[in-house]
Design goal:
Four copies of one chain form a homotetramer. The termini of chain A are close together. Chain A is built from three helices and five strands. Chain A has one domain: Hotdog Thioesterase (Thiol Ester Dehydrase, Chain A, Roll), CATH 3.10.129.10. In chain A, a hairpin with a 3-residue loop joins strand 3 and strand 4. In chain A, 20% of the residues lie in helices and 39% in strands. Chain A has 133 residues and is α+β, with helices and mostly antiparallel strands. The interface between A and B is medium-sized, with 19 and 19 residues. Strand 2 of chain C pairs antiparallel with strand 2 of chain D.
């Protein structure tokens, strides 16, 4: 199973008045993890949309928050695929504070493979092998 | 059980290049629903933080996406409490396109009652009665 | 000159760790003001894109911050057009705390009229009369 | 004059239904540029808030948009200080598509030095030398 690591630094814009990262931003970070997963798997997500004509629409997202990320923290995101079917797939994520490896959050997203009109289709064969479950 | 309705209009900023609302924004809308829940229950969430000295930190969030919201759609959000304990509570949400009542998404958030230092505490008695399970 | 008023309530997501609204959100609010300007002028911005085939791309944005908006504040946005040319127009904005009319920010955005391929075009005649300078 | 470079990759979340980056996100990127300016100048912005007890509140922001950034573009941000006074300073920015050096946007932000209560104060001497105009 391929586990892909990416890192980002928490932006001021991502904090809220509690002094910690606002909870919806972890879903944005999961997307950053997915895009990097594709890069390291050997293709660009944007080419899959532009040239392959398919996109991965989100049908479910889930996040469990363990510790709060703070402004300027470096966050390590691990991304991997836990389920791959002909028309859908599932990503899992682990987010840690890079400085001390503290677990910040775990999550998952379920995706449907769709054409650019939003209709469910089979994942084209050339992309299938990239997702290593 | 109190079910509270609130409405908002989809902002251009909330769309993405798929032409639909980006998935993390539904969690922002759930927060809009929670704040209105508090208003209609009889208190202001911001006063609970400022005067009550407690906040509801999110420990889990989940969203199932059924249909895509689009720019300028009016969205109806139903918010209610499904579980209330001494130190935690759970909200559930239903989001619909107001025009045709089409279900857009359902979701839930789990919260821990914390003091302003982030330590778990009991929900103060004066707020307990507001949450009608 | 038509001055259009719209109101919104500050979301928790819009605050940052200073405890006030993060500065880029005022540009999102200006967009909310523009969309409402169109509504009150007699057309829907989304129809201008979908049916009219033109969009108003932003070429410049400016905001002067006078006082900080806070979570749950009701904000009043005044929007009007200060310049209208064949291929461009300029909006101005005034944002106030509704509770006490305190001025929060003033701003302006410059727009180029483009077709859906992003090429500058003349503003179609049927929309011209809507913008009342 | 110190000009600091930082780079970021455009997130899907930052695009809108025009298929390009939504205009308010350039102000978020300016903040990313400022934080990196501080890092390369020799201090951490978050320490200036936490330990120095001062923050740089934004009093004006301006952005001129030249070309549209797209999803997955690598963006190069140049940040420098154009004016430094006892209680205020001004940053300027240049954002380019890294792939071809195409200019995307230029901008500026004006800041007031404030203590943590939001009152204007003099920039502490130990930070003064870091800002190299």
């Amino acid at each position: 199973m391929r586990k892909v690591e990416t890192r980002l630094r928490v932006r001021y814009a991502e904090t809220d008045q509690m002094g910690i990262v606002y909870y919806s931003n972890y879903l944005v970070w999961m997307e950053v993890g997915r895009v990097e997963y594709c890069n390291q798997a050997g293709f660009q997500y944007r080419d899959m949309e532009r040239k392959g004509g398919v996109m991965l629409t989100v049908t479910e997202a889930q996040c469990t928050y363990r510790a709060a990320a703070e402004f300027d923290d470096e966050v390590q995101i691990l991304t991997w695929v836990t389920d791959l079917r002909s028309r859908s797939l599932r990503f899992a994520y682990e987010m840690r504070r890079a400085r001390n490896c503290q677990l910040l959050a775990t999550g998952a997203t379920q995706h449907l493979v769709c054409n650019l009109d939003g209709k469910p289709v089979r994942l084209p064969k050339q992309y299938r092998s990239f997702f290593d479950v």
